[in-house]
Amino acid sequence: MVKIGNVELGEFPLLLAPMEDVSDPPFRALCKKQGCDMMYTEFISVEGLIRDATKSVQKLDIYPEERPIGIQIFGAELTSMMKAAEIVEAAQPEVLDINFGCPVKKVTSKMCGAGILQDIPRMVKLTETVVKSTNLPVTVKTRLGWDDKTQYIEEIAERLQDVGIKALSIHGRTRKQMYKGEADWTKIGNIKKNPRIKIPIFGNGDINSPQKAKEYKEKYNVDGIMIGRAAIGYPWIFREIKHYFETGEILAPPTVSERIAAAKQHFLHSIEWKGTTLGILEMRRHYTNYFRGFPHMKPYRMKLVTSHSPEEILETFELVAERYAEYEPAAAY
Q1: 31 catalytic, yes or no?
Q2: pTM of the predicted structure, to 2 decimals
């Protein structure tokens, strides 16, 4: 049984990676329904939290069916991280996660996210401050290092465990790589071989099929897998991986009706939670994956990503359902 503190996650949990403007409640609901064992919120600025910024505070929203869930924060100042930890604890998630992995320049330039990988002692101090500021189990998500010359993740894992984190998720790329090239899980596997490491280690990066999930599970001996981009518009990745683990067989991909039902649920929940304008805008990134591989889909997809009317979008879903009623879609991988 894999546990984060006292939070039980099963024998080999599948986690949804925190993704900005993606892993919100509407999307998380779909992933949970399809077998995701642990989810995280979008990352939340500690400066926004302590200043009561509307967007930051809204990201604290948690629904009963989502549990267990972690709230993820990012920041660079000790006092701000301490205050934010207290706010997060009041929201009552199961876990508080620290983002030391976001590679986006506007984040790293403030020594937040993966930027902190340029100053490991400060990374450790920030983590220790958060651990001491909350009763929640604290976890960290990070990368191998800042660049190829500074891949200190094996040392970092020991030091973060020593100051009290309860689990570590590692994306198998450096900050310099962003999301390019192939994720290297070798050092993640080395951490699992380290007899000093007692906390769960979750691997992240490039898991986009049941076969790859099984291969990496066995090759690197991780305690669980965190899935990000492969789940966007395809929450069924979780149930397909679990089915493959249990049976060795590839589960039939979701039908057209399943995809449309999920896209519709996602859309309606999105505009309910965010408001019509933002809900419509932030749904657009999901449509390509919901309908990936559909032949001659472009006219319908263009309607979905250019319409500003909920009624028109729902009408387009119905047109897609009618047009592809006999179509049998392939899996997303």
Answers
A1: no
A2: 0.95
